[in-house]
Amino acid sequence: MSTLQLALLGNGIFSLSSAILIIIFKNKVANWFGLEKSIAFLIIGLCLFYFSYSIFKELKNPNPEAVFYIIVQDLIWVVASVLILTIKPFGISALGNQIIAGVAFVVLFFGIGQSVGLAQTDNVDDKGMKRLNFERVVNATKVETWKAISDVSNYHKVAPNIDDVEIISGEGEGMVRSCSHKSDSWTEVCTQWTEEEQYSFRVNTEAEDYPYPLKYLKGTWKVEEISKDSTKIIMEFEFAYKRKIYNLLIHPFMKSKFNKICKELLDNWQIQLENK
Predict the structure, then answer these.
(1) Which helix (H) or strand (E) holds 216?
(2) pTM (2 decimals)?
(3) 102 and 237, same structural domain?
């Protein structure tokens, strides 16, 4: 079990236990806090019950975007607790304040654990290098499939995140091409080209006008023959962010967006190859 899953599990168990305790003993809990009405605690208990469900739902295969929002909710709880302890707006008893502080500390602990785990999502080494892989089996020969995916000068016709491609120089390994999307543009160099097998492009992220928060990005495209008329397309992207904090703040949303882009790209290739 990963760091992220352990933190989610702990948070889920703590939230569910707290929800059950508050719902069943809402009147007693209200007395602990020095308050007469227990309806607010019933509402809090029900909210915690749903919150624990949202955590357990992500436990097996955590969705980075969903986990990010779980962390945000934990942070809101901690901040709200600090405000209550500082401003003291409800006349809560000393015991109640101690409970609020203790719960906030536990929530903060799990929030930090989830943040550390989320930042490590898709890591392939301890330096923050990440990798995303995508595959699709198409009903086409290896030769036909290679011809389609290696048409790098027309990549923009199938890739939804690229508007135009221009080959600046060379062909095969050493080729330099320019890509653009809306007002952004960048250059890429082909670092590997094995005919009818695979090729790789490394993006020039060192350029001053490179528009994205990455310090390294390389993409590799491969074809593997499954049978005479069936081929697997494999895409592998290795990248690293310019700042470590981006692993937490940007990666959950970038991964979600990139998944959609690559699915559409593979869909377009599949349509192109199978509807001839």
Answers:
(1) strand 214-227
(2) 0.85
(3) no
Would you say residue 32 lies in a domain?
yes
pLDDT tens-digit map of 13-63: 999 999 999 999 999 999 999 998 889 999 999 999 999 999 999 999 999
Q: Provide the 10 A C-beta neighbour count for residue 114.
A: 27
Domain-located, residue 124: no
Check if the beta carbon of residue 160 is closer than 8 Å to that of residue 182.
no
Domain span at residue 264? 130-274
pLDDT, one tens digit per residue, over 69-126 is: 999 999 999 999 999 999 998 889 999 999 999 999 999 999 999 999 999 999 998 8
249 CB-side CA count, 13 A: 7
Q: Which residues of 10-23 are buried (b: 16+ CB within 10 A; e: fewer)?
A: bbbebbbebbeebb
CA angle 238, 244, 249 (to 5 degrees): 90
- Cα–Cα dist 23/28, whole Å: 10
Q: Does any domain span residue 77?
A: yes
